[in-house]
Each structure stands twice: as structure tokens, then as C-alpha cells.
Amino acid sequence: MEFTAQAIADILNGTIEGDPNVKVSTVAKIEEGSPNALSFLSNPKYSKYLYSTQSSVVLINSNFELEQPVKATLIRVADAYEAFAKLLSMVSASQRPKAKVHKQSVVEKSAKVGKSPFIGAFAYVGQNVTIGNNVQIYPQVYIGDNVVVGDNTILFAGAKVYSGCVVGNNCIIHAGAVIGADGFGFAPQPDGSYQKIPQIGNVVIEDNVEIGANTTIDRATMGSTIIRKGVKLDNLIQVAHNVEIGENTVIAAQVGIAGSTKIGKSCMFGGQVGVSGHISIADGVKLSAQTGVPNSLKEPNETYMGTPAMTSRKYSRSFVVFKQLPDMKRDLDSIKQLIDKGHLSLK
Predict the structure, then answer these.
(1) What distance lies between CA 90 and its chain's CA centroid?
(2) What pLDDT does residue 23 have?
(3) By CB atoms within 10 Å of each CB, which of 12, 156, 219, 266 scores lowest?
(4) Which of 157, 112, 143, 107 is nearest to 130 (CA)?
(5) Which residues of the chain are modeled with pLDDT < 70?
(6) Catalytic residues, which ones?
(7) Residue 105: how many CA atoms within 13 Å on its side-chain side?
(8) Residue 184: what pLDDT?
(9) Structural domains of the chain, with CATH
(10) Dist. CA 7–CA 291, nearest whole Å
């Protein structure tokens, strides 16, 4: 890619300070800038780098006040972070593979494939599958029978979508993700063995969902495991059978959600959160990293920490006490010694 500062400003409706004809051909962090690079500044912690960066063009917020001269050409926009994301999206879209069906892919005759598909080598599209328009299916993707994939969705290399599952429009499923594997259902037997319970439901993923690499979403025992629109799942997440995740919820890596749990809208889960099964979590709940949730959380827009989960306010107070436990034990041991020696009486 190569753009002038003026072209970028025109795209973003920004205002230029500096040379409008300077060109950029790459992007870089502001602290790691180099000539011909485009950077952005949105976090005040990085403001000092604006005056020393080697980047040729920097996006900054329109209300940012300079404290000293800047060598780079500046483009002022309403939100520098959002503007930078928009540019990256445009670059990413320009790099999408050209429409083609590779001769070494397998598309069953009963499958229906929309306009302008990309289907890479060794991909498999099963019987009675419906693929929307502009879908990208990278090499070694497996799409089972009777699956539906919506328009503009991308399935990266090695992603697996088991039979009967539904993936909406504008979704991204990253490499190694598995959609629709059997839920973990086994019935204990008198002899101590386990009888498998058939998992005959599916997974429904609504529009504008992104699923990270090696994340697994299990099919329902009956009915559907549902990922509502706008949900963003990081890498290495386990979503069990019959879970429902509300729209625009974001979940970081290594989270585990047990079966039949219902998660509300616009929640935020930090890394390694563990959620028990058959509970519910209210809209807007935030769970700090490594929080353990054994019971339902009914208060919307609350922040929880610790195991078992407690409100951040209660956790902070409890942690102050926890840090003092060694000193408290030492004091109690000293008091016990005085009592044992007869130097102190509790009467």
C-alpha cells in the first residue's frame, strides 16, 4: 500500500498539519516509528513519543494540544484509534484473495455456493450446504452437511464447522476453531462407566461474530448453542453445549463456560475466567481475569473479581485483610506463647 497524507485525510475527514504530499507505505507503533510509516496516538501515556517518532504521518485526536514542535505530518481526527482501525480494515479488505474455487477442493454437488467465493485447496464443503456471497473458505476448512454460512464470512485455514450448524453474515472464524463438536454429555452407569448421550442439536452463530483460533463451541444436546450478534471470542475459549452468549459480549482467551449457562448482553470477561453450568449472568457484567463464577450473577453492569466471584468493592476490601494474614498469624502465635507460659490470661 502507498498513500499520501492528503489521501488518508480525505478518507477520514481529517485535518492536516504538515506536508500533505508525504507518502506512507506501512504502519508502525508510534514508539517504533520509521520513515514512510503511519502511526496513531490515542493513549496519553504515549504522548511523549509524538515528538521523537520517526513515522512520517501520525493520526491524533482533534483536541490534542501540542507541547512542542513535531516533525511528522499530523492528521487530526475525532477519534485517532477508531480512524486507525478503519484504515487497517480497508487495507485488510484490499488483501482478500481473489474469487476462485481451487481444483483440489471438494464441493459436493448438492451444495449451493453464492457469488464470488474463495475456496482454497483441500477444503471440503458437504452435502446440502448453503454458502452466501463473497465467502472466503481457506485451505483445509471442513464444512459438514447441511451447514449454512452467511454472506462475507471468512473461515481461516483448518476451521471446522460440523453438520447442521449455522454461521451468520460478516463473521470471522479463525484457524483451528471447531464449531459444533459434541457437547460433553455422559450418563454414569452402575459399573462406574459412562454412557454417551447423543448430542443432536447444533450451534447458531449470528451476524458480525468473531471467533478466535482454536476456540471450541459445542453443539447442543437438544436445541441450539447460540452466539448472538456482535460477540467477540478470543483464542482458546471453550463454550459448552446449550450455552447462550448475549449480543456484543467480549470474552478473552482461555475462558471456560460450562453447559446451559446464559450470558447477557455487552458483558466483558477477562482471561481464564471459569463459569459454572446452568447459571445466568446479567447484562453488562464485567469479570476480571481468573474470576470463578459458581452461581448466577443477577446485578447488571456490576464488576466481579476473585473465586468465588464477589463485587470488585468487596474483593478489594477482602484483599486488604488477606495481605495482613501472615502478620495476624504471627501476632496470634505470640499471644498463644504468652498464654502457654502463663504470662497472659484471657480472663
Answers:
(1) 20
(2) 95
(3) 266
(4) 112
(5) 1, 346-347
(6) 241
(7) 24
(8) 95
(9) 3-94 (3.40.1390.10), 100-310 (2.160.10.10)
(10) 46
